[in-house]
Design a protein that fits this description.
It is built from 15 helices and seven strands. Strands 1, 2, 3, 4, 5, 6 and 7 form a seven-stranded mixed β-sheet that branches. By secondary structure, the chain is an alpha+beta fold. The N and C termini lie far apart (about 60 Å). The longest helix is centred in the first third of the chain and has 17 residues, at about 10-25. The chain has two domains: about 10-220, Hypothetical protein, domain 2 (Endonuclease III, domain 1); about 235-360, Nucleoside Triphosphate Pyrophosphohydrolase. It has helices at about 10-25, 35-45, 50-65, 70-75, 75-85, 90-105, 115-120, 125-135, 145-155, 165-180, 185-200, 215-220, 275-285, 330-335, 345-355; strands at about 235-245, 250-255, 265, 270, 290-305, 310-320, 325-330. A hairpin with a 3-residue loop joins strand 5 (about 290-305) and strand 6. The protein binds iron/sulfur cluster (SF4). Iron/sulfur cluster (SF4) binds next to helix 9 and helix 12.
């Protein structure tokens, strides 16, 4: 029989079950039980759109380089990007730096202690504000990330689409009642763990779920039909020619614009719909690059972003002298440049060529 989560004594029973399970659930994350707002904030920003497994490797390295909010505030954008390299969604790294500068410069290095005040900082949305406020300062607020949306939808047998604002509000109100007023941080972490380890998107492990007795979706046999998700939009596929232009011991790079996709990162110049040597050569000519000798094709790489797919093909060239106004870097400089993971295969190709292990037209 299912216990409906409509009365205060049922909320208390739910919390007890959930937190008892949380105490014994095996997975130990580097940030579990953390109460330092700076460290919680870094982990939460890293976890946005990125899996726990991926973040685990980055978290320790990042905190070793920037152990305090002041240390991060004093870093350059490129230093932060370098440690962020491979995590993707680089706008998060920029907001992280902007927020650190604000906290360090205007707030004496202390994070505000309420979710409401935290939400006013750059890059901190309702979820992250709730996570920091509850875990670091004990404010009894819900931190509703994607894991909680899924678990709360199922617990409450929500039949509306979770993309609807009204449904989100309903779920938030439902979850807020369940938060343990004495241990809000642990409660939120336990709920996140439940979503991540048990209440899985496609195949929820209801048979081992500590709160199965409270679950409305399970009682209806609807756990795989809930949450109701919006129809997925097709991703736009963009074909790009990527120019790898060598000049003696160096290669051409450029910095992406300060706004938009991969803002502020470095790349090998790419040109939309330039899919053969002649088209890429014409685009390079517009940048002032003449007398290029083709070195053949380089790797083809597909990179999937949230809304778009880049289907990239590399073209290698050689030029006698570097034209003015363009940036050429050596192998060691290239290794230190913050580049998005979309460029990884091209960078490997270029480094092999620059380090002399193969000529550009011999690498495949
Ligand atoms: S019983 Fe199943 S659907 Fe319900 S919360 Fe637990 S894992 Fe999720």
């Amino acid at each position: 029989m299912t216990t409906r989560l409509s009365e205060p004594d049922q909320w208390v029973a739910f919390r007890e079950r959930l937190l008892a399970w949380h105490m014994t659930s095996a997975r130990d994350l580097p940030w579990r039980g953390e109460t330092d707002p700076y460290r919680i904030w870094v982990s939460e920003i890293m976890l946005q759109q990125t899996t726990v497994q991926t973040v685990s490797g980055y978290y320790g390295r990042f905190l070793s380089a920037f152990p305090t909010v002041e240390a991060l505030a004093a870093a350059s954008e490129e230093d932060v990007y370098r440690l962020w390299q491979g995590l993707g969604y680089y706008s998060r790294a920029r907001s992280l730096l902007a927020c650190a500068q604000k906290v360090s410069g205007e707030m004496g290095g202390r994070f505000p202690e309420t979710a409401e005040a935290l939400e006013k900082l750059p890059g901190i949305g309702p979820y992250t504000a709730g996570a920091i406020a509850s875990m670091a300062f004990g404010e009894p607020v819900l931190a509703m990330d994607g894991n909680l949306v899924r678990a709360l939808s199922r617990l409450s047998a929500e039949s509306g689409c979770v993309a609807d604002t009204a449904v989100r509000k309903r779920l938030h109100a439902f979850g807020a009642r369940l938060v343990d007023p004495d241990r809000p941080g642990e409660f939120n972490q336990a709920m996140m763990g439940l979503g991540r380890l048990v209440c899985l998107p496609k195949k929820p492990r209801c048979e081992t779920c500590p709160v199965a007795g409270f679950c409305g979706a399970l009682a209806l046999g609807a756990q795989t039909r809930i949450p109701v998700l919006p129809a997925r939009a097709e991703k736009r596929v963009v074909r790009r020619g990527v120019a790898l232009v060598f000049c003696r011991e160096s290669v051409l790079v450029r910095k992406r614009p300060d706004t938009g996709l991969l803002a502020g990162l470095w790349e090998f110049p790419g040109f939309e719909d330039a899919c053969d040597t002649a088209s890429v050569r014409a685009c390079l000519a517009e940048m002032g690059m003449e007398r290029l000798r083709s070195q053949g094709e380089a790797p083809s790489v597909k990179h999937v972003f949230t809304h778009v797919v880049w289907q990239m093909k590399g073209f290698a060239f050689e030029v006698g002298a570097p034209p003015d106004g363009l940036t050429f870097v050596t192998a060691s400089e290239l290794e230190r440049l913050p580049m998005p993971s979309a460029m990884r295969a091209f960078r490997t190709f270029v480094l092999k060529a620059l380090n002399g292990s193969a000529a550009p037209n011999q690498i495949r």
